[in-house]
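Let us practice reading a record.
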Amino acid sequence: MTPKEMATLAVQALDSKKGVDIKVMEVTELTTLADYFVICTGSSNTQINALCGAVEEKLAVEAGEKPLHREGHRDGTWVLLDYGCVVVHVFSDEAREFYSLERLWSDGKPVELTELPTT
């Protein structure tokens, strides 16, 4: 499965749990950390955990992938799921504004969700 297809699965999972303001950024040319960042906002700690659970389940079932690393799940304001080529960031509103990954990685290429393959 390609990194773009994995990012697509993550977006589908986030959308299925009503994730807000889902963005995908291609960062292949900027870093060796990942090819894509998927960024999403959840409205509460409970929703943030549900969003992350949905991503983990979908990628495990449909891609056979488990996160290499999961960070931030205890405080529930920002959870990072690292799949190597795709990193999923799920934020509370306040944390997303504070960390402002879209600004920090503004040299990355925004991927329109309509550009993602449908599965």
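A brief commentary: Strands lie at 20-26, 36-41, 69-71, 78-82, 86-91, 109-111.
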